[in-house]
Design goal:
The complex is a heterodimer of chains A (136) and B (394). Chain A is mainly beta. In chain A, 4% of the residues lie in helices and 37% in strands. With 394 residues, chain B is α+β, with helices and mostly antiparallel strands. Chain B has helices at residues 2-21, 24-27, 94-111, 144-152, 339-352; strands at 68-69, 131-133, 159-160, 163-167, 201-206, 209-214, 219-224, 241-247, 250-256, 284-293, 296-304, 313-321.
């Protein structure tokens, strides 16, 4: 599969508290750093609808040509289905932009906030950051 | 949304009927009974007015029929513990109820495109909290023994000893996790309490049996409704052993033989006390199911354990709402529970790569690259697991 120019942007942002904590079945903060926000632009390798949290696999091509293999944690399959996801939403090869919070240990893992398709359509991925600002 | 309207319409009936079925001590202190405000968009239902006796349908074998899908999404906007701003009132005023409904609908619209929404919770109920006993609506204080057990509890939602406003970050083995982290169970009574997703509760019946299946985490309790010998006290189970019987049209389920390893509260249940509360093998739980209309049923769950609860017991009660259009998806939590490995790896990485201490006063979101402090759980502005005084606005 081919990747377009990829860009990884990491920055510290102040995230707005929501009115209702969006807690996963376990603590978000033990694994991910909610104070940071990472944006990936890459190509879908596969989507695993598994419990308790789904995982999206994205290949990101760096400016030097190296490919990074990212894993993006998402909501439970039941949550995604209620968010209008289905098995055909993210076929392998789809170009997407993913926004989320990175793993604390530097591993190529992200807890998702939302994804954006090339046509500008955005979808929530049911990430578990309790302080994530809701996509509009 | 049809589902939401059904919930709202049924809630008005259910809340009113709850006044008739709750313990006298609870009924006596609630606000003057006023007709619940029914939204103008609520559909007409076939349910009879609260004053008319409800004719309980029966199964073909002669037991009251309470089967169906009874999701508790409509409770997710109500705190487990009553917010201090309501004082001793068990029910919202008409004005508060209208505002709560408006807030719930707005929240639902926001969540419809947000993270972990799915509760379809654009409704509110009349109660100021789900705990109806003790009368103050608060989780009871722990005995000294309860506090000893609590200190030994482990969970990813355990407060960080060095920073109680945050969750702990020490995970070096499986023993550092709680049963819910490990996808074993939420336990009772938590399995019958709402959270922000997977709120489905399905009741099926067979001659002499009632089966209660909870979407979170895909568990079924098979409850005999005819006399059956109890298990030997030496046999202990995560969800205990349940025995049911009918008193008129009310199903009463008594459960004992717990293993004492579950948490009596969960951070995921809005308005829960913090930190987590322990359980013991001494626990006895009594649930009551009484259908009050075609689409509503009174439910209560009383937890008794004098060894850890200073008041000896507490009771959660709420109206259940029938919604057979709700689809319950499999939640085989353990199949991909990568959190255990990832948390341990994260802790060990942080241990091997210590970061400079965060500057004093750094708050939420202040952690730098690789910061270990974790983020503070929602407190001032949130509704999660927090002391009653910290329960925020909504």
């Amino acid at each position: 599969m081919r990747s377009k120019l990829m860009n990884v942007v990491m920055g510290v942002s102040v995230l707005l508290a929501t009115t209702l904590p969006l807690m996963a079945h376990h603590s978000f903060s033990a694994e991910f750093d909610g104070s940071k926000q990472v944006t990936l632009e890459g190509t879908v390798v596969k989507m695993d609808f598994v419990n308790p949290h789904s995982w999206l696999y994205v290949d990101v091509k760096k400016p030097d040509g190296m490919i990074e293999h990212w894993k993006v944690e998402d909501g439970a399959p039941g949550v995604l289905l209620r968010l209008d996801w289905n098995r055909d939403t993210l076929p392998p090869g789809t170009k997407i932009k993913v926004v989320g919070s990175p793993a604390k240990d530097g591993a190529l893992r992200l807890n998702s906030r939302s994804i954006e398709f090339p046509n500008g359509k955005k979808m929530s991925m049911g990430g578990s950051n309790p302080d994530a600002e809701q996509p509009k | 949304m049809r589902k939401r309207n059904l919930v709202i319409a049924g809630l008005s009936i259910g809340a009113g009927l709850m006044l008739l079925s709750l313990p006298k001590s609870f009924v006596a202190q609630q606000a003057p009974a006023k007709a619940p405000a029914v939204p103008s968009n609520a559909p007409q239902t076939t349910a009879k007015p609260a004053t008319a006796p409800y004719k309980q349908p029966m199964t073909s074998w002669g037991e009251p029929d309470i089967s169906g899908m009874w999701p508790i999404n409509h409770l997710v906007n109500t705190d487990l513990q009553r917010n201090a701003r309501y004082g001793d009132r068990a029910f919202l005023t008409d004005e508060e109820f209208a505002a709560a409904q408006k807030s719930a609908e707005a929240s639902q619209k926001q969540k419809a495109s947000g993270a972990i929404p799915s509760s379809e919770s654009g409704a509110a109920i009349r109660q100021t909290g789900l705990i109806v006993d003790p009368p103050n609506g608060q989780f009871p204080p722990l005995t000294d023994y309860g506090k000893q057990l609590q200190a030994k509890m482990e969970s990813s939602y355990k407060p960080d000893p060095a920073n109680p406003s945050a969750y702990k970050s020490t995970f070096d083995g499986i023993e550092d996790f709680g049963p819910w982290d490990r996808c074993i169970t939420r336990g009772l009574p938590v399995s019958m309490e709402p959270r922000n997703y997977n709120n489905g509760i399905r009741i099926t019946q067979a001659p002499g049996y009632v089966i209660i299946t909870t979407e979170m985490a895909h568990e079924s309790r098979v409850i005999p409704t005819t006399p059956q010998p109890r298990l030997d006290p030496s046999i202990r189970e995560w969800l205990g052993e349940s025995r049911g019987h009918w008193e008129g049209n009310t199903l009463i389920v008594e459960t004992t033989n717990f293993n004492g390893l579950t948490e009596l509260t969960s951070a995921g249940v809005p308005g829960s006390p913090r930190p987590l509360q322990p359980s013991t093998p001494n626990m006895k739980i009594t649930e009551r199911f009484k259908r009050t209309a075609t689409n509503s049923m009174d439910y209560s769950i009383k937890v008794e354990d004098p060894t850890i609860l200073a008041t000896g017991s507490f009771t959660v009660a709420y109206p259940m709402m029938l919604d057979n259009s709700y689809q319950m998806y499999e939640y085989a939590c353990h199949e991909g529970n990568t959190a255990i490995r990832n948390y341990i790896e994260t802790y060990r990485y942080a241990k091997a790569h210590p970061q400079p201490a965060a500057p004093a006063g750094a708050g939420r979101g202040g952690g730098g690259a690789g910061g270990r402090g974790g983020q503070a759980p929602a407190g001032g502005g949130g509704r999660g697991q927090a002391p009653p005084a910290g329960a925020g606005q909504r």
